[in-house]
Amino acid sequence: MVSRKKKNNKIAKKRLGSGDKIILIISILMIIFGSMMIFDASMYVADQTFDDKFHFLILHLKWLSLGLIIATVIYFWDYHNILKLAVPALIGVILLLLLVLIAGEEINGAKRWFSLGGLGSIQPAELAKVAIIIYLASWLSKQKFQYKTITSAFKDGFGRHLLNFGAIIGIVAILIILEPDLGTTMVICITAFLMFLMSGENRVHTFGTVLAAGILGVPLVTVAAIIEPYRLERVKTYLDLLFTGNVSDPQGSGYQMQQILIGVGSGGFFGKGFGQSRQRFGYLVENTAFTDSIFAILLEELGFLGGSILVFAWILFFLRGFKIAQNAPDKEGRLLAMGIVVWLTIQAFLNMGANVGLIPLTGMPLPFFTYGGSSTLVTLIGVAILLNISRFTKLNGKS
Fold first, then answer.
1. What confidence tens digit (pLDDT) does each residue in 200-217 have?
2. Contact, 116 vs 122, CB < 8 A?
3. Residue ranges with strand state E in the chain
4. Comparing C-alpha atoms, which of 386, 372, 392 is closest to residue 127?
5. Are the C-beta atoms of 157 and 177 separated by less than 8 Å?
6. Closest CA to 123 of 113, 133, 131, 115
7. Which of 67, 183, 192, 318 lies deepest, with the highest CB count within 10 Å?
8. Which tens digits make up the pLDDT trace of 43-61?
9. Within 10 A of 18 (CB to CB), how many other CB atoms are there?
10. If residue 10 lies in a helix (H) or strand (E), which one and from where to where?
11. Is the Cβ–Cβ distance between 259 and 283 less than 8 Å?
């Protein structure tokens, strides 16, 4: 019987030599266009605050450069070696999440960041996204989910696996929600749930996982969404918009949503033109014009057409990433690829959905576009791992 180490060595010898070109091209285009949008959306705030309209662009390019260096190393490093770091990575992230609650930089009542001086700050919760995916890919690939019935599933260990899974995700989720950061918590939990779901080998596992998520997940998300006053206000604003078509309290709790919709609506089909946004001139709350709400600025400037192109790009990214996962040479590679694809696309669509009023505002970044060192870094790391896996896959009949 061939050992796992020998099997991995045999797989490594079948390396294609280059990553998936479609994912690579989409990522490069998003990096370039995202950098342009960050500069465009941030120049007013940068000029007013630092007397330098290039301030945030320069910081973004520093993180982008660091991320590209790390991504290049990861791209050429066998992903099986990355999986060997699963436990240390998870422990390290948990320690960072604990430390940021104790000694992190506090901004508007939230403790999410460590200040890095001239580089800005780093957010451990962003690093947790990658660490959780790597850990789950490694752990779930070792589990056996061969159940014939629901009864036999719980007798044969499904309940134990589910409990262990819940404990791992629960620790990380609780630490992040204490910061507080519900958006990141949701992305991690949804990604983790779908990875657990896809790790099964029959319908019994699928049914049991969905049932458990419904019984436990929905009530917990609901409580988390309404337990904090500001989250409850966001939900109320969304429900008013959904059922009445109007934003309630546009000068108070509904101000941000009102300004977002003004920008989106004024963009029309073709937009006002690149660099012509009005909402970036201090109308959106704080620095959200180039962070959480940058998609609204994009829609204002490039209109429905520009927004549709970006949506299509993300759909293509998901479909190609899904194909990479399907053709991965082993279960850990399949789960790792799927976890990354699910994380990035879910986060992208939740952000875009919130910026057109389809869901409540969540405050999560749009990958490749939102300004933020941690978000840029982990996005590039995720794409590099995905491209790494694609070097081992069998696409278009090649091996």
1. 665 656 666 666 666 666
2. yes
3. 105-107, 110-115, 121-122
4. 372
5. no
6. 113
7. 192
8. 999 999 999 999 999 999 9
9. 11
10. helix 4-13
11. yes
